[in-house]
Structure formats: C-alpha cells, structure tokens
Amino acid sequence: MSLASPPPEGPVRPTGRFLWSHPAHAIALGFGSGLSPWAPGTVGTLWAWLSFLVLDRWLDDRQWALLLGAGLLVGWWACTLTARHLHTKDPGCIVWDEILAFWAVLWLVTPTTGEALWSRHLAAFILFRAFDSIKAGPVGWADRVFRGGGWRGGFGILFDDLVAALCTLLVVALWVFFN
C-alpha cells in the first residue's frame, strides 16, 4: 500500500466546503480570506492587519514571539498539505504566508502610538504588498529557491513572504531613521 499522494488531476478551486474540510485548509486559506475572488493576497494581508489589531490588545511581546514561531511551524504543515490537496505548488488562495509575515511586520513596527502608528502600518501594508506582488530582487530569489512540492514547497510558500517582510522592515527602519 502506497502512502504517496494520488497524481494531480489538475488544480482544484477551493470552496467553503474545502476550507472547513480539514484544519490545515482553514489555516492556510486564512480562515476564508484566501477565498476572495479578487486579490486574495491583499485580502489576506488586510485580514492579518485587522486580526493583529484585535490580538495585540491581549498579547505581549513574548506571546507574539511564541505565536509567530508556532505559526511558522503550523503554517509550514498547513501550506504543504493544502497545496497538495489543491494540486498546485503555490496556490494564490493560500494566504497564511501573508498573514504570518505581515503579523511579524506589524509587531515590529508597533512600539509607537497615535498618528505615527497608523502611518507606519499603512506604509508597511503598501510596501509589503508591493514586495510580495512584484517579487523583485531578494523576494524573487526566495520565491524561486524553494519552488516545488512536498515540504520544500510548503516552506517556499512561506519563505518569499518572510523575505518580503524583511524588505518591508528594512525600508520602514530607514524611513524612521531619516525622519
């Protein structure tokens, strides 16, 4: 008896039923935000922003670090399994990568308050979406390095967004430093 996945029959379009058919699907598809018919990555990033604002009221820095670390490991599993079930290497509907990476960005740019907080959040959102969408430079390299199926593909789904997050943080840090 083989434990290998059945051969792909072509990409599967996820539905609400698919979303809730396995916990990995719910996580990888951003609890439904990845089902958006237009720009699921942007919708997933907006969901990340909203959920960050809610969660940040209750989580301290240690808890955020634990959530991000656990989210990376659980996300790796969820993205790998969901991509396999969708018969696609990096489906656009998988948005856990955007959620996790943007949570990290927001966590690191949030120690300020008031108007500066909102301007940093907005700048971070625009920069992150640009880096993630355009995939130029290091983000494009990261996207190519881990392309494929299996564990490598699941990590690759996450990796390019983590690099986009690092690029975003670098630009925000330079902006703060020079202002």
UniProtKB/TrEMBL annotation:
Domain YutG/PgpA: 27-174
Record membrane topology: Multi-pass membrane protein
Record GO terms (molecular function): metal ion binding; phosphatidylglycerophosphatase activity
Superkingdom: Bacteria
Keyword set, alphabetical order: Cell inner membrane, Cell membrane, Hydrolase, Lipid degradation, Lipid metabolism, Magnesium, Membrane, Metal-binding, Phospholipid degradation, Phospholipid metabolism, Transmembrane, Transmembrane helix
Pfam family, one: PgpA
Catalytic activity: a 1,2-diacyl-sn-glycero-3-phospho-(1'-sn-glycero-3'-phosphate) + H2O = a 1,2-diacyl-sn-glycero-3-phospho-(1'-sn-glycerol) + phosphate
A cellular component annotation (GO) from this entry: plasma membrane
Pathway: Phospholipid metabolism; phosphatidylglycerol biosynthesis; phosphatidylglycerol from CDP-diacylglycerol: step 2/2
Subcellular location: Cell inner membrane
Functional description taken from the UniProt entry: Lipid phosphatase which dephosphorylates phosphatidylglycerophosphate (PGP) to phosphatidylglycerol (PG).
Cofactor: Mg(2+)
GO terms, biological process: phosphatidylglycerol biosynthetic process; phospholipid catabolic process
Protein name, as recorded: Phosphatidylglycerophosphatase A
Enzyme Commission number(s) of this protein: 3.1.3.27
Regions crossing the membrane: 38-55, 64-87, 99-118, 157-178
